Amino acid sequence: MKALVLFSGGLDSTVLATQLKSEGAETRLLSIDYGQRHARELKRAEKIAQALELPQQVLSLPDLGPLLGGSSLTDDKVKLPEGHYAEESMKATVVPNRNMILLALAGGHALSIGFDTIAYAAHAGDHTIYPDCRPEFADAMETALGLADWEKLSLHRPFVHLSKTDLVNKGAELGAPLHLTWSCYAGREIHCGKCGTCVERKEAFALAKIPDPTEYEDSTPV
Ligand SMILES: [Zn+2]
Question: pTM of the predicted model, to two decimals?
Fold first, then answer.
């Protein structure tokens, strides 16, 4: 398998990249700046790529953000919700059609470099809030990508039925650089500890019974 990983610098895609490398797949990383509020994750993505010794490319499309307004991740006017990840209020963090856009860009790049697979790390905990993380979306996207070129292109999504806790466990087992990963949506110097993804991150380490290496502004346990 020659896999191009859609690589945000978050925990999920870091575990995915580590797993592919450990399986011996030829692996490259693609990180995309789509004008996200939490651009800090891109800096972490570079560090993680170095730690994993995997080639990484960063595609800079910050002008995409204003076109995808209405989400608290791309629009400063929309307040970032705090609380539990699975709450209805977290729908404010949905970026319209993000994964189709990012997977389409990754698909073009994968084909251009002769890769046969795109890998993305959507997991089961994402489904309740993010419609473009549902298995049905991934299935349809694979069909579309398979029809987009004469060459075969698969969409590898091994985590769609796993929980965030499963991914923390898997990452710890594989020796993934979890301490370098970035989850927080608030876009400050360290993890806020209160936004939905920080809460999800804290909860996943706690449930996995793996020490959480993250520095939080608010380290109150969930
Ligand atoms: Zn946060």
Answer: 0.92
